[in-house]
């Protein structure tokens, strides 16, 4: 397998002669197109306001597939495909309700959203609450202290982490695995503090998992304000949580990845994949997550085409289905590409919101990190300054095992506001700034332009 | 005067030995204080919601002076002064109204705000409109084409400028000098397209000037949407503008700069001034402009004090009065400092909003630009990456002629959203993100910490 890695290293040009004044002029044209004649903001509006939330398996997700195909047709991309993929189908049902009741009998309503994939409560669920500050604390608890209760996992994201994704990663366990760990100790339900930074009334949903052989219990997220209220009430004595969630699973549904290309002028059979995910959680409108990423990639390809750039390699934009609760689209894409013997040479994902661009990260051989560091001086006039080793994206990650040595790149916008909106009803079109979105599109176009030029 | 410049150069340490692991640890503490135990967001809320807009000469501006003094007392700064300064006093009066009337007689209301300093219309003003795309176009026009009409200066900010302040600078002339140039040709009024990037219904006010010997005519700003409507109506034929503005000047009022210090441990008589401006335009709440800058400086000093840092030089925070329409506070401060023979060794201003920090600019000798470039590696973990020659700030600019060779520094946050809110009713507390504000405070504290260490 070393051979493959060597292959990927050998496709890098030596960089210094690759770029010229002409490249600098070309990049300026890409930014002008995005900022002066850009379509991205209107495209995002039509996705968010014309369709809205689009969870895998929903009618809205199917509408989004058709929207994506139509957009690519309108922009005249060279090839447009729908790739079939089976996806999970979970529905929230009626809006959730919950109250906390203190020992004095006083009842206070709290903000709750079921976690994605949770079972419902089958009517009213009422039980005493036991609070833990982390998943580890829960794991260490005695069965007696948890049995028959609702576990409240009240771990706050660490505000001192400069990159908010780091803080998110630190809390991910309570959402993903809280229900399993609670059930092991006999809990009848679990509620978590939303993985969010601001103190507000928005609960944030997201994926959670059950394990074979461990009983399934309902799992919900509380807003940060409701979490503080519940914790405060628990300081005073026994608290009962009353909740109802109507959510349930349905059989898998057929859906699609949506793809369109600019055919390579020199090496049409070598493919650079760029993408984001078309599905979203069912609260909000999936504006930052990941409507912005979809539009970044759509607009990047439109800009490259409109400005008359003829990429050497084929640039394929993929709107992946089902990143949020299964990554079925990402897996189906990698499997299909491999099976068809496609030569995938690099992939770029945008799935961190539509904020002001910082740069790109590379999940790949250090020589690729050096490669993108070589883009920095050309992109400095656009305030792109972050070119580091790091993460690519969930949707493109299955390419890594299918194509050993393939470099994956992730678009990195400013992360400060991302967890204000992530997976919440507040992730709506109005929270995306037009210029920030447009600069992201231009950054993606410029990065792909340079990547295509740099790869043999 | 070369002597002075040499003095300022000589006060730089050689940099390499100046910083250590300890500095890196210290900077981490400053950021932790801002992000975990920060007061900035609550302080900005109390300034914006407890007082609101605070134009020079208004009761709110006086309330803001008292707010500033009280805050500094609460935080236990070493010395707190109010420095008297006489400021202009202009009032908007009743809310402005305006309509456009096409030749068919149809009347449509439009969004208008008087420019700051404008005279009123003295009842209803009704005249035909003549449109120009720039101040230069107006200057080239014939008297016959303008006489008796209302001039409409419809120059849009250039969206292709990456730094939005560049686009603002390109349009500044229509706001500052449109009335004078219109009056020279016999216009009876002037309305401008707001200096703003988004298409929305918010008109943006700002300073404008009259000239001795040129008759004064009323000047207002239209929202970008109203500007587009007016321009479209003019394409179809003659358009009449009907407007009323109640604004007027009053005699100058006494007001104050508010100052507080951390006394230097080694050189208490050498002063690093840091500041923003306390006054704001009367639309909105002056949240980004410049409540954020006030809070950046207030919180930076609080953080330095709380973390136990003993600066070598005296760090003086100044809340300047009257940046928006006269800069009387800035001039009074420089004059006073000079007269008192104070040794001012550097000044830092924050007046570009409360957005995610990019870095700092230096208006000074190239050796100071090199100095701050030397801060970059210590500040990279906080995504501070912009250390360049550039601009300091309006309030601190009079120090430049009072102290030849003094380096001025400007805090540089991301500029993309600034002209969504600038001088408009939309510049409210809710438009400031808590983390972005806090990171700005910490950046200011870290910069001042390093500057104090670096200067002899």
UniProtKB/TrEMBL annotation, chains A, B:
UniProt-annotated location(s): Endoplasmic reticulum; Golgi apparatus; Lysosome; Secreted
Keywords: Carboxypeptidase, Endoplasmic reticulum, Glycoprotein, Golgi apparatus, Hydrolase, Lysosome, Metal-binding, Metalloprotease, Protease, Secreted, Signal, Zinc, Zymogen
SUPFAM superfamilies xrefs: Zn-dependent exopeptidases
Domain of life the protein comes from: Bacteria
GO molecular function, one term: metallodipeptidase activity
Domain Peptidase M28: 257-438
Subunit structure and binding partners: Homodimer. The monomeric form is inactive while the homodimer is active.
PANTHER family: CARBOXYPEPTIDASE Q, PROTEASE FAMILY M28 PLASMA GLUTAMATE CARBOXYPEPTIDASE-RELATED
Name of the protein this chain belongs to: Carboxypeptidase Q
Species per Swiss-Prot/TrEMBL record: Fluviicola chungangensis
